[in-house]
Write a structure and sequence with these properties.
The complex is a heterodimer of chains A (about 120) and B (about 220). By secondary structure, chain A is α+β, with helices and mostly antiparallel strands. Chain A folds into two domains: about 80 residues, hypothetical protein PF0899 fold (2-Layer Sandwich); about 40 residues, no CATH class. Chain A contains two helices and eight strands. In chain A, the strands form three sheets. Chain A has a three-stranded mixed sheet, with helices on one face. In chain A, strands 4-3-7 form a three-stranded antiparallel sheet, with no helix packed on it. Chain A has a two-stranded antiparallel sheet with strand order 5-6. In chain A, a hairpin with a 4-residue loop joins strand 5 and strand 6. Chain A starts with a helix and ends with a strand. A seven-stranded parallel sheet of chain B has the order 4-3-5-2-6-7-8, sandwiched between helices. Classes of the chains: A alpha+beta (about 120), B alpha/beta (about 220). Chains A and B meet through helix 1, strand 6 and strand 8 of A and strand 1, helix 1 and helix 6 of B.
């Protein structure tokens, strides 16, 4: 939902980091987005392309990948996927914020909330 | 198109691992430490546009002002309408205008905190921008998160937005006086909420008359 402001922040950061290293251009940008964040990877890619227009990153290859959710349970020690429930009334699958093993709600989200610039590839001469 | 390939020595692969949402979470943690230092209990109030967030805060502030020194941070895109309303209940109010942003973030809250006389506050309500989506990505450093959902939003609001309810400590089902007119059964909303988060506390209210607000006070432990 806030893809534009997030993409603008990512673009500024990438351009700053590459300028610091005296890069001539940026050839690749790898982004990771958590499944539980409200960022749509396709929209981030779309906005990033626009944000990079007329910059040293205008030709950069963008890779936006998704990090799946992972939780840990403070009661039973489970780590792994978030429990998903299917509701036949609405034909809708929704996450349940409880442990899939012991049903406790004492869970911590370990992965899935990221919006990360993982790595960039720059060209220097 | 002519493609110029660089020599291998000219390409640099740089690991950055910069997480933009983590930055907010770190700022939120700082806000929390700051609030704790002053002994302030902060509650983030979220919900759709028109769900009754301001009405709930006014009800809570009028009830609790004998017990706590109350302040409110009101987040809104442009106007001070909500801030003026809350002021009438006797709480001190700081308005944050987000301009075009669809949510408050930890940095905006930190700025608002610097405008408040923290030594004079025991209980702080932070009214988020009306939105069930973005605020879930941006914790503010509050101790509790409340979501207000009203029966006028239809029967599907809860199942469509599981993540924000998964973040909540208390959910308030508001406008129960209108459930017949809208055909939405508050008990069904409650069942859906408990499937998303089994330990969620749920209260049913009419924030105009104050019906059910006492349950919210108890659920928040205030």
């Amino acid at each position: 939902m806030h893809e534009l402001s997030m993409s603008q922040a990512i673009a500024d950061f990438v351009l700053e980091e590459s300028a610091k290293r005296r890069a001539q251009s940026v050839s690749r940008v790898e982004i990771e987005i958590g499944r539980l964040s409200f960022l749509n990877p396709d929209q981030v890619e779309f906005w990033l392309k626009l944000c990079f227009k007329n910059t040293p990153a205008s030709e950069a290859e963008l890779q936006v990948s998704v990090i799946e959710a992972e939780i840990s349970c403070r009661k039973c020690g489970y780590t792994g996927d978030l429990k998903m429930e299917f509701d036949p009334t609405y034909h809708f699958t929704f996450p349940s914020f409880s442990c899939p093993r012991c049903s406790s709600s004492e869970i911590t989200v370990e992965k899935g909330r990221e919006c990360m610039v993982k790595r960039i590839e720059i060209l220097c001469r | 198109m002519k493609v110029v390939k660089p020599d291998a020595g000219e390409i640099f692969d740089i690991e950055l691992e910069e997480d933009f949402l983590r930055r907010n979470r770190e700022l939120a943690a700082e806000n929390r430490r700051f609030l704790d230092k002053y002994g302030i209990h902060a509650i983030d109030v979220m919900g759709s546009i028109g769900s009754g967030k301001t009405a709930l805060i006014i009800q809570l502030a009028s009830r609790l002002r004998g017990r706590h020194k109350i302040a409110t941070i009101a987040g809104d895109l442009t106007t001070t309408v909500d801030a003026e309303r809350v002021k009438s209940s006797g709480a001190s109010v700081i308005q944050i205008n987000t301009g075009k942003e669809c949510h408050l973030d930890a940095n905006l809250v930190r700025k608002a905190l610097s405008e408040l006389d923290l030594a004079e506050i025991g209980l702080l309500f932070i009214e988020n921008v009306g939105n069930l989506i973005c605020p879930a990505d941006f914790p503010l450093g509050s101790h509790q998160r409340v979501v207000v959902v009203s029966v006028t939003e239809g029967p599907y609001t809860v199942v469509k937005h599981p993540f924000i309810f998964g973040e909540a400590d208390v959910t308030v089902i508001n406008k129960i006086d209108l459930c017949q007119a809208t055909g939405v059964e508050p008990e069904e909303l409650k069942e859906q909420l408990l499937r998303i988060k089994p330990n969620l506390k749920v209260a049913k209210t009419n924030c105009i008359t104050g019906e059910g607000v006492e349950t919210v006070v108890e659920s928040l432990g205030l």
